[in-house]
């Protein structure tokens, strides 16, 4: 898991109320953390021993080492 801990994403909200949700590792995937961003706010998130996935709801730009992704309207 050490390599996963070096993975970061940047989420920039393009509208009000963008949700960034951390999902757990293990047999059962569960929500463990939620942030709500206002338009223009930026969140830097890191994958950890507890976070295996990050779900984004709303209009946002997501930046990773793999590229830049814009969510759909």
UniProtKB/TrEMBL annotation:
<dbReference type="InterPro" id="IPR000824">
    <property type="entry name" value="MtrB"/>
</dbReference>
<dbReference type="InterPro" id="IPR016031">
    <property type="entry name" value="Trp_RNA-bd_attenuator-like_dom"/>
</dbReference>
<comment type="subunit">
    <text>Oligomer of 11 identical subunits arranged in doughnut-like structure.</text>
</comment>
<keyword id="KW-0805">Transcription regulation</keyword>
<feature type="domain" description="Tryptophan RNA-binding attenuator protein">
    <location>
        <begin position="5"/>
        <end position="72"/>
    </location>
</feature>
<comment type="similarity">
    <text>Belongs to the MtrB family.</text>
</comment>
<dbReference type="InterPro" id="IPR023558">
    <property type="entry name" value="Trp_RNA-bd_attenuator_dom"/>
</dbReference>
<protein>
    <recommendedName>
        <fullName>Transcription attenuation protein MtrB</fullName>
    </recommendedName>
</protein>
<dbReference type="Pfam" id="PF02081">
    <property type="entry name" value="TrpBP"/>
</dbReference>
<keyword id="KW-0694">RNA-binding</keyword>
<keyword id="KW-0804">Transcription</keyword>
